[in-house]
Fold this sequence. Notes:
alpha/beta; Alkaline Phosphatase, subunit A; Arylsulfatase, C-terminal domain; 2 domains; 4-stranded antiparallel beta sheet; 13 helices; 27% helix; 15% strand
Amino acid sequence: MRPNILYIMSDDHAANAISCYHSILQSVFQTPNMDRLYQEGCRMDAYCATNAICTPARASIMTGQYGQLNGVRTLGDKWNPETELNLARILKENGYQTAMFGKWHLGCDPEGFDDYQYLAKEGQGMFGEQGVYFNPSFKDKNNGYVLYEGYVTDIITNLTTNWIKNRKKEQPFFLMCHHKAPHDFWEYAQRHEHMFDDKTIPEPESLFEDRRHRSPATRDFGSSVTPRSRIRSLYDDFCKKDYVTGPLQGTEHMTYEEKGKAAYQKYLKDYLRTVAAIDDSVGKLLDVLEAEGILEDTVVIYTSDQGMFLGEHDYQDKRWSFEESLRTPLLIRYPREIPAHTNCTELMANIDIAPTLLDYAEISIPENMQGISCRNMIAGKPQEEYHKGIYFRYWMHLAHQHDNPAHYGVRTKDYKLTFYYGLALDAEGAVDKPTQPGWELYDLQKDPGELKNVYEDPAYYEIREELKGLLCELKEKYQDQDEAYVELQRTFEKYK
């Protein structure tokens, strides 16, 4: 019997904000329902986004391809689900009921779904697809734009659970539940308002990182939590009188460090309160599957579109290649073949989601999908193909005042090598202002916090050159060799 598939995805959810990932936040914040997926299934410890930003990540999940193939490299690119590979359409054509509720954010109407309602507001284009936390508007496949009253996480949950109850019970289903939370800016449900009263959130080691070890390519870049960034900081946002969850007050005469600490506390408390509602949602979804008698027959996945910085390296947002952004949470429960309470440390990328789900559904994987099925390794079994390294790329040079230089690189189990090329190229939304190119190399085993760039360390010379070879190999494999970008090729040759 082919399983049902429930794919739950949040937006900008850091693995560090799920208690079963055992970060410093575990002492003050727990996610019992997400943790249940781990207790009864598998936690992926090296699952990575190939482009750590919303729209490209979502396109890779739906196609099993990198952005250079599916046409979605930036937030401004629009996916064409009718002409490109489409996970939902393949499942539907092979006998699955398909539905999607929540945030879509691919610049098009969903295709391949029997039913959908996605966050959208008439006349607002892609911005409208971001949605709002309270009283959101959705686009219904059959009824046009619909306005709901209430909190967005709860509404998306209710739409999903109602569909499960009213589905055609003779067919397996593929159901996507996509939350807006915890995307900025973090408006929480009233029931979580007092969640952190009298609590202090632990700070990451790198909140006030000494950046002298960094390459000049990254040292002075990136939007911040503290007042560090003159381009964009959460401290400045929080001090605005009309800030959505209330302004940060009483900081005028604080020291720089005190201001940074105050901004961090507000950021984390607001953020984690929105995550708490998602955990509530996961619990309700598991309950309805159990009530319907189909929990054991359903592959349940919880993940995010990419990671998120929660003050590490004094960053907000995502977009960087550092672990907090690149590494993405993924929990999966399917007791018919996945042992309970297991950890998988093998490399997995978001281009692997589509082929893996097709494998569960016993459907042939199209040859032009670039990902691999990870079904066996999730179950703790050997499989024919593993990733030697995960290739990643961020195209949107300096976009949206987050001040992130364009880059690409490779992550293996032990190391991460990144080339910051600092050029806009032809990427939609990128800022045409070249920045200093440079390389960074981190030893993830000795330095999991990525606080010591060892690119120039002679002891790592052989490793560095080996990783450069792997990087070039993967760029060729994934058809991202930059033939059209003469300036980038020259930059790479000059700095390699």
